[in-house]
Design brief:
mainly beta; single chain; six-stranded antiparallel barrel; 14 strands
């Protein structure tokens, strides 16, 4: 037997044909279920591949593979109806995320993440430069004591508009950039405070 090849899960798209392999309900033989990728959840901390390939108890930890036999994800969880039946809403962890987690555990014995020390929220506004379309801005709700954010001068109520000159359009976009920045990096935030624009430089540290 040869080890299965790992795919590039960033190339996975809704509509792709996939198969889930596992031991549902502790069956003595492995089983295979067929389905498609229903959606991709782009959450930087916990991204997910949604599939309608049936997953049941005992499938978690098994591979989700494409038609070339490459692993695109690790089966994780199924949302069931109140009666416990299949709903067709099943999730797998993208293999790119799995690889980064495994590499951290091998190298450091744990998963490492950046830490800024802020709690943020979103506010909608109408962008006059985009034909009045509703956009989202990211507002700092709270700053933790002795955090990199506090030391740099970021305050509750600040609007974070850019990170290293890249515009931030809401929380998801911010965290995607933030968690893909190496620990120890020095980044510059453009913030708006009481209609005044200013810049704050922060060195990212490991989450305590």
């Amino acid at each position: 037997l040869q080890a299965a090849q790992l795919a590039n899960s960033s190339e996975v798209k809704a509509g792709d044909l996939v198969m889930a392999i596992g031991n549902p309900f502790g069956s003595t033989q492995s089983s295979v279920s067929l389905g498609i990728v229903s959606a991709i959840t782009h959450n930087p901390i916990a991204p997910r591949i949604q599939t309608d390939a049936a997953l049941n108890d005992g499938n978690s930890g098994g591979p989700l593979i494409n038609t070339r036999g490459e692993i695109v994800g690790i089966n994780q969880i199924s949302l069931s109806s109140r009666g416990g039946g299949q709903t067709g809403v099943n999730y797998a962890i993208p293999i790119d995320k799995v690889k980064s987690i495994v590499e951290d555990i091998i190298d450091f014995g744990k998963v490492k993440r950046n830490w800024l020390g802020i709690d943020v929220g979103e506010l909608p506004y109408r962008d006059s430069t985009q034909n009045g379309m509703v956009q989202s801005i990211m507002v700092v709700r709270n700053v933790e004591s002795q955090s990199p954010a506090e030391k740099s001068g970021i305050q509750a109520g600040d609007i974070i508009s850019k990170m290293d000159e890249r515009p931030i359009k809401g929380i998801s976009a911010f965290y995607e950039m933030f968690y893909n920045t190496p620990i120890g990096s020095v980044v510059e935030f453009e913030i708006i405070r009481q209609e005044k624009t200013m810049h704050k430089t922060v060195q990212l540290v490991e989450e305590p």
